[in-house]
Specification:
The chain contains 8 helices and 11 strands. By secondary structure, the chain is α+β, with helices and mostly antiparallel strands.
Length: about 220
């Protein structure tokens, strides 16, 4: 991954968070799980640190929480926080963002992606807010686990064992409570009485296989 590409991937994530946050917010808190490249792969911490330090040197941001960048691995609660100068960031972003190319849709093109942060507890589809589950309740706990295990066939017993809980509601009810209904549920989940698979992200080929042309997304972004 080249340095220009790393910069572009990181500032794209920051820009998306800025667009979703109130303009009065001067501090951003971003989960390390949200720093993904174009292919949905996690940006290595070393590369992420380099870009954040570059932004700090250019006085675009001022890092205020970096502890989680310095430890091994990447846990669900890991995040980075920084103060940001929106005007300076806008200039930096416009200078370094990826050029807009003609959109070519192939079978492997990612059409829909769910993102979730345990800090904000916001479930987003392509940046649109779907739900904000209540902290510490079953819906939030179970979804947080499923989100970290995309495209895996998970049993109810496995989830209960790993989370040390007893799941009271059915998988159908949990995803319905979170706003995944109709084609949204069909697109992102395979569900039975005892198993669940969370499909994320969803490609054109995956959507075509479900005989779905497009999804009606929430109106809030």
């Amino acid at each position: 991954m080249s340095v220009p590409s790393i910069i572009q991937d990181v500032i794209e994530v920051i820009n998306q968070k800025l667009e979703l946050s109130p303009k009065s917010d001067r501090v951003l808190s971003i989960s390390l799980w949200d720093f993904l490249d174009d292919h949905g792969e996690k940006i290595p911490k070393d590369d992420l640190v380099k870009v954040l330090r570059r932004l700090e040197e250019d006085e675009v941001i001022k890092l205020t929480l970096t502890d989680h960048l310095n430890r091994l691995g990447r846990k669900a609660e890991d995040k980075v926080e920084f103060e940001i100068d929106r005007d300076k960031f806008s200039g930096f972003y416009n200078q370094h963002k990826k050029p807009v190319a003609p959109k070519v849709v192939s079978d492997t093109t990612i059409l829909y992606r769910v993102s979730y942060s345990e800090q904000s507890r916001e479930i987003l589809i392509n940046g649109f807010l779907l739900a904000k589950p209540d902290f510490g309740l079953e819906n939030e706990i179970v979804f947080g686990y499923i989100y970290q295990h995309p495209n895996e066939r998970l049993s109810k017993a496995q989830i209960e064992q790993d989370l040390h809980i007893s799941i009271g509601k059915s998988f159908h009810k949990i995803v319905e409570n979170l706003g995944f209904r109709g084609d949204l549920r069909k697109t992102f989940f395979d569900i039975s009485k005892t198993y669940i698979r969370f499909r994320n992200p969803v490609t054109k080929k995956g959507l075509d296989s479900l005989n779905i042309e497009t999804l009606k997304l929430p109106l809030t972004n």
